[in-house]
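Notebook entry, structure prediction.
Reason for the run: the old model in the group folder had no record of what sequence produced it. Starting over properly, with the input documented here first.
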Amino acid sequence: MFAQVKLGITLNNYKGVMMFNASENRKNLKPAVAFGLVTSLFVASSSVLAVERATLQLATIASPDNLWYEAAQRFANGVSERTEGNVRIEIAHSGTTGSVRESVEALQIGANDIVQTVIASLEPYDDIAAIESYPYLFRDADHFLEVFSSPLGDELYQEISNKTGFTLIGAGYRGAREMASKRPVESVGDLDGLRIRVPEIRIFRKTWETLGASPVPMGSAEVYTGLQQGIIDAVENPLEAHLRSRYHEAADYVIMTGHVHSAYTFLFDNSRFDSFSPELQEILREEGRSAMEWGSQESLRLVAEHEEELESLGVTIIRPNLDEFREKIKPMADEFPHLAPWVERISTDS
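New structure, fully documented this time:
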């Protein structure tokens, strides 16, 4: 690499360089030619890694013992290595920068540079972001990964970026969202009156209202106490979040509803991302995608282990007939008509 070459040519040894051949026709070679050669080599070397110095703060609710924290750390490590330490990503973990909503808002004022969160966190900025959390949109994990690694996924991300003002990098498969409940749910009818915590995102609220439950918007930090104190009866999240947040200590049942296949991504404010050099933008995109791909594979590997661990902790796992859920959710399409074209394209993508 040019940046690592030591030429060892100085102004004091130009004569030595120029007189390497004593023949008469070389004597007239002008030192300026040699100086131009040396200058061009140094210019080439300085442009190879023309990446600005920057320290970026990445906010996440994941704690250091969670695989998504490790995915964030892999992102940080990859960027540091690719930029030879010029760009450092510091991770503010465990929700230390506030709720997800607050952390995303902080992107716009520069208090955060990156937020690791679900795509649907951008729904307050435009309803298009709700598509990721549209119930029963993805058939399974393979369908999810296929969509987000295809031109269709790229097109969706660009549409979300254009309408929300945020750049999205990578799609990490968190697993299907399942319900932790203080009471058993054997069929969709058992949801009547069930107070279920949902994120502060409209599509989650509408999903559970349509299914017959009573959704309670609540920040993630309040969920454990809410379950313990009976403020809520249930909560839904991927199984890794069940374990991380210790829902099993307050809820005896896990209902395998599989209503959403959830995607983590790295968010940047568009104007902030556009301020980076093209070289740095490319590195951030490549390393962000790589980190999320690693997280997806780890998540898939751990799903079966999560179920076994929950059962070992005394949780009863219930698998209801999901056809009932899919049928009852159909009227929700009327609430999100603008998503219909995307729902059609994604659900029929093979």
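Summary: The longest helix spans residues 278-312.
The old model has been moved to the deprecated folder.
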